[in-house]
Design a protein that fits this description.
The protein has helices at 2-34, 63-72, 83-88, 90-98, 118-136, 152-160, 180-189, 206-219, 227-230; strands at 42-43, 49-56, 78-81, 102-105, 142-143, 164-165, 170-171, 196-200, 223-225, 236-238, 243-246. With 249 residues, it is an alpha/beta fold.
């Protein structure tokens, strides 16, 4: 009797595991089918250069400090701005531009872009482009989706708008506030040419960690540039891993 009970329990557990595997596979397959067009995560380049980027959605207390640090190391960077951040800090938007840093688009309201219709996507994208252009005279050409959330429709819509969908290959995780040392170690551990590094403009330990990161990268021979200085212009291809390649003639 006990053996029969154990056998039934084992059979039930096996069935549950099979169902779980099936649904995991099915979910992955559906996701892959909806995401055949990739944003740019990394650039295939032999040049020893990396891009530094900052997402700005909430708060601005650290922004001036970050700009001063970047200036002191004579490097370039890209700031991806949300529309309501642009509205709240117009003078900082102007200053970022005036100091020679690239301004990217991070959506108007920080939504999950993959859940939007094409018309709603265009509204999110164009609202920020118009606001930044009104303040700086320059229209953003790079877009980073909030939460890293995207689908084929978003990438294709951006390309139709003459823009590039940008992700990242190194996430500093500065928003988790582990401290300056873990932040430094995480960024510098595996950095290589063509990487796109993600920071946030108002993270607690980023100003403390940034000088060491910039100095070490420069000591290793890296040129630190903006996103648009790193990526290839059209025509290009992006492979299934999100690596951008120049289109072969």
């Amino acid at each position: 009797m006990k053996k029969r009970t154990y056998a039934l329990v084992a059979c039930a557990i096996a069935c549950m595991l099979l169902v779980q595997v099936y649904w995991q596979y099915r979910s992955t397959a559906v996701f892959s089918a909806k995401s055949t067009v990739k944003p740019i995560y990394h650039v295939d380049t032999k040049e020893k250069k990396v891009a530094i980027s900052f997402d700005a959605a909430w708060g601005a207390d650290q922004t001036e400090t970050l700009l001063n640090i970047l200036d002191s190391y004579h490097v370039r960077a890209t700031f991806f701005l949300v529309g309501f951040w642009v509205k709240n800090y117009p003078e900082l938007v102007k200053e970022i531009h005036a100091r020679g840093y690239e301004i990217g688009n991070h959506s108007q309201n920080h939504p999950q872009m993959s859940k939007l219709t094409r018309e709603a996507m265009l509204s999110e994208i164009r609202a920020v482009n118009e606001a930044v252009t009104a303040l700086t005279g320059i229209c953003p050409r790079v877009f980073r989706p909030p939460y890293g959330d995207y689908n084929d429709l978003l990438v294709e819509t951006l390309r139709e708008e003459g823009m590039h969908a940008i992700q990242w290959s190194i996430d500093s995780l500065d928003w988790k506030e582990y401290g300056a040392k873990p932040l430094i170690e995480r960024v510098l551990k595996k950095v290589e040419p063509g990487d796109i590094i993600l920071f946030h403009n108002n993270a607690k330990y980023t100003p403390e960690a940034l000088p060491t990161i910039l100095e070490t990268l420069q000591q290793r021979g890296f040129d630190i540039v903006s996103i648009s200085e790193l990526i290839y212009p059209e025509p290009y291809t992006v492979d299934v891993q999100g690596i951008q390649h120049p289109e072969k003639p």
